[in-house]
Write a structure and sequence with these properties.
The chain is of the alpha/beta class and 205 residues long. It is built from six helices and six strands. The protein has a domain of 128 residues: ABC-type transport auxiliary lipoprotein component (Rossmann fold, 3-Layer(aba) Sandwich). The chain is globular and about 50 Å long.
């Protein structure tokens, strides 16, 4: 009898679960922003070239993904006119003021959290981490936010392998510095992930 009751309970639960409707996804009441201003990126890393490199990549990849961006060079000139030349100074103006200045429906802020090489003994690492957030021009409310990172590393366990890791790590860094493209591969990977995430947000809007 106890066994039959147990089977009945399982069958009832299964039927109820099958009848349950999934919770509806939350949809925005306003359309996805039409014009977006890509602002200078703030930089927590020690590499002074990182903001320019990553902003150029974001501009390229976002445009290729059919996001309607304001002109980056024109935006830089307008921002310099109010005393803003780098991402760390953006908090001196409200989103509403920046959006009116740049003629945008939304602002895309970026923060470079990590952009570095690590070449210590038997270990060589390369890491890029960036956070983006989309801010509504009228209200200053955050519409979307994400963080993406990419890391590559090599480890040499033997003496010969450790030497190879050390030498190649410095050689790659030196070559990228000469070409003025530090951490290019990792930067492109991170930007692709960021743009893909924003594209998904636009599709699900």
């Amino acid at each position: 009898m106890r066994y039959k009751n147990h089977i009945l309970f399982i069958l009832t639960a299964a039927v109820l679960a099958g009848c349950a409707t999934p919770a509806p996804s939350v949809r925005h009441t306003t359309p996805f922003p039409y014009t977006i201003a890509l602002l200078p990126l703030s930089n927590q890393s020690l590499d002074l070239r990182a903001p320019e490199l990553l902003r150029e990549l974001l501009d390229t990849y976002l445009s290729a993904a059919n996001f309607n961006l304001t002109d980056v060079k024109e935006a830089e000139e307008k921002l310099r006119g109010i005393g803003i030349s780098e991402g760390g100074q953006l908090n001196s103006a409200t989103p509403q003021k920046l959006a009116a200045l740049l003629g945008a429906d939304a602002l895309l802020y970026g923060d470079i959290e990590t952009f570095n090489y690590s070449n210590i003994g038997v270990y060589a690492g390369r890491t890029v981490k960036v956070r983006l957030k989309l801010i509504d021009a009228k209200t200053g409310a955050m519409l979307w936010e994400t963080e993406k990172s990419k890391a590559n590393s090599r480890l040499g366990l033997s003496k010969a392998a450790a030497k190879d890791v050390f030498v190649k790590g410095y050689a790659n860094k030196a070559l990228e510095n000469i070409m003025d493209n530090p951490l290019r591969s990792e930067s492109e990977d991170v930007v692709r992930l960021l743009v893909r995430a924003l594209g998904k947000a636009r599709r699900d809007w």
